[in-house]
Amino acid sequence: MTGSKPLAGGLLWLAAAGTAGAAAPPGIAQMDSPTLRRHYLECSRTSEQARLAMPDAQFCSRVAQVLLHRDFGGDLERQWAWWRRAQQEQGGTAVARRRQ
């Protein structure tokens, strides 16, 4: 999964820098942690297969930002470690589902 690392790193970078100071839309801000994590992993898998459209990239960036701060206290290394474990647990083979 070496090809995935730059992508996930990009999502983490967007969460930390690309949307810094921007408030998450209410729908994303109200999501619980399992839902945020599911969307984050779906974004990762989907973006491994194709370039995300701008609205999808923005959605994924906001999900990553909220997840980073809510579940990982802003610690990118902790989020990265969680992402790697999740990828290993799923075997990296799960098919991405479109967000609802």
Question: What this model shows, in words?
Answer:
- There is one protein chain.
- By secondary structure, the protein is mainly α.
- It has one domain.
- The protein is 70% helix and 0% strand.
- It has helices at 4-18, 26-29, 33-49, 54-72, 76-90.
- Helix 1 (4-18) packs across helix 3, helix 1 packs across helix 4 (54-72) and helix 1 packs antiparallel against helix 5 (76-90).
- The chain is globular, with a radius of gyration of 12 Å.
Average pLDDT number: 78
Compute the number of strand runs: 0
Structural class: mainly alpha
How many angstroms does the end-to-end distance come to?
A: 27 Å
Compute the number of structural domains.
1
- Runs with pLDDT <50, length 5+? 16-21, 93-100
Radius of gyration: 12 Å
Q: How does the major sheet shape up?
A: none
Helix content: over 70%
What pattern of helices and strands is seen along the backbone?
A: HHHHH
Question: What is the 3D shape?
Answer: globular
Number of helices: 5
Percentage beta strand: under 5%
What is the fold's blueprint, element by element?
Elements: H1 4-18, H2 26-29, H3 33-49, H4 54-72, H5 76-90
Helix pairs in contact: 1-3, 1-4, 1-5, 3-4
Give the tags:
100 residues; disordered C terminus; 5 helices; mainly alpha
How would you summarize this macromolecular structure in one to three sentences?
With 100 residues, this protein is an all-alpha fold. Helix content is 70%, strand content 0%.
